[in-house]
Design goal:
6 helices, DinB/YfiT-like, Four Helix Bundle (Hemerythrin (Met), subunit A), 54% helix
């Protein structure tokens, strides 16, 4: 028997996640990533690395730049802003951990501001994110989340190497 299900029939049988659930999922990850930044000793966040990887402040700046410019691009189609003022594809990090946390918080607020502007059908549209990735918006958003998880994983290794207990990887509570 040949399978002749239409795309709409297939979609009607799939599990869906609402835009609000997806926003909440992303913000929960961001909450855990913020606790990772807080856990770093001030004197190590800008200098410590293993095996030639970037320090955690640089990794954090990549996450900040991608999330901030990414949510704007997803909402508006304007992908400018990623690393406009820095090197290695991202902005230069502030000079203190508190400034880094403040910048992280400003991007969290930016997500809350832009998210309501994203029409649900936008997630299925294709766009050229940052002039580098041509694909569906939902794929771009998942990349932003995956990239953050990847760099947070590097932070876990760094903190363990420094003898610092990192936050529990499974605890994404925002409170």
């Amino acid at each position: 028997m040949e399978n002749t299900a239409t795309e709409n029939e297939v979609l009607s049988r799939t599990v869906t996640i609402t835009p609000e659930q997806l926003r909440s999922h992303w913000q929960e990850h961001r909450s855990l990533s913020r606790r990772m930044i807080e856990a770093f000793p001030e004197n190590e966040i800008y200098t410590f690395s293993i095996g030639g990887m970037r320090n955690y402040a640089d990794l954090t700046m990549e996450m900040i730049d991608l999330a901030g410019a990414g949510v704007k691009g997803i909402a508006t189609g304007d992908w400018s802003g990623y690393g406009d003022s820095g090197q290695q594809g991202h902005s230069a990090a502030p000079t203190t951990k508190q400034e880094l946390l403040a910048l992280w918080d400003s991007v969290t607020e930016k997500i809350e501001t832009y998210w309501p502007q994203i029409a649900p059908e936008r997630f299925q549209e294709r766009d050229n994110a940052f002039g580098m990735y041509e694909g569906p918006i939902h794929g771009t958003l998942l990349y932003l989340i995956d990239n953050e998880i990847h760099h947070r994983g590097q932070g876990y290794v760094y903190l363990r190497a420094l003898g610092v207990e990192p936050p529990a990887f499974w605890d994404r509570n925002m409170g």
